[in-house]
């Protein structure tokens, strides 16, 4: 069920995100801005079942629209062009991005009313926590 993810979320905690950005190949200047940004995440589902995930910050706003289990092309906030697929596994939204022979996984789940986003690249794991806005 994706309904639990729908809403407006604000970043309240970020652990190891700089290391994760390094692992996926983000340059220093972009990482510094990425570390300072406190993005709002807006998740919605339209009548056709397409999911929209919009990340809004003073640095950049990005939006992806997709259907579960259907691959699409994504241009990430840091400019990577990836082939992306999002699946729903055990209550988690699992987003897999592949580019240039590399692969990263983002797992989002709702725990204790917060949205936890786990970013995984090889051995590097970052955790971002978002609180739901009223």
From TrEMBL:
SUPFAM superfamilies attached to this UniProt entry: Lipocalins (SSF50814)
Pfam families on file: Lipocalin (PF00061)
Domain of life: Eukaryota
One Gene Ontology molecular-function label: retinal binding
Domain Cytosolic fatty-acid binding proteins: residue ranges: 7-24
Keyword Transport: yes
Record keywords: Retinol-binding, Transport, Vitamin A
InterPro entries hit by this protein: Calycin, Fatty_acid-bd, ILBP, Lipocln_cytosolic_FA-bd_dom
Chain's role: Cytosolic CRABPs may regulate the access of retinoic acid to the nuclear retinoic acid receptors.
Similarity field: Belongs to the calycin superfamily. Fatty-acid binding protein (FABP) family.
Record-given protein name: Cellular retinoic acid-binding protein 1
Record organism: Siniperca chuatsi (Mandarin fish)
């Amino acid at each position: 069920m994706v309904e639990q993810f729908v809403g407006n979320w604000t970043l309240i905690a970020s652990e190891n995100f700089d290391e994760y950005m390094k692992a996926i190949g983000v340059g220093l200047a972009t990482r510094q801005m990425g570390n300072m940004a406190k993005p709002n995440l807006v998740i919605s589902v339209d009548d056709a079942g397409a999911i929209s995930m919009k990340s809004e910050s003073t640095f950049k706003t990005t939006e992806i629209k997709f259907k579960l289990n259907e691959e699409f092309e994504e241009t990430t906030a840091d400019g990577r062009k990836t082939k992306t697929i999002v699946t729903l596994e055990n209550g988690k939204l699992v987003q897999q991005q592949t580019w240039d022979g590399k692969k990263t996984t983002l797992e989002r789940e709702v725990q204790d009313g917060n949205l936890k986003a786990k970013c995984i690249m090889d051995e590097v794991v970052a955790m971002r926590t978002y609180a739901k806005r009223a």
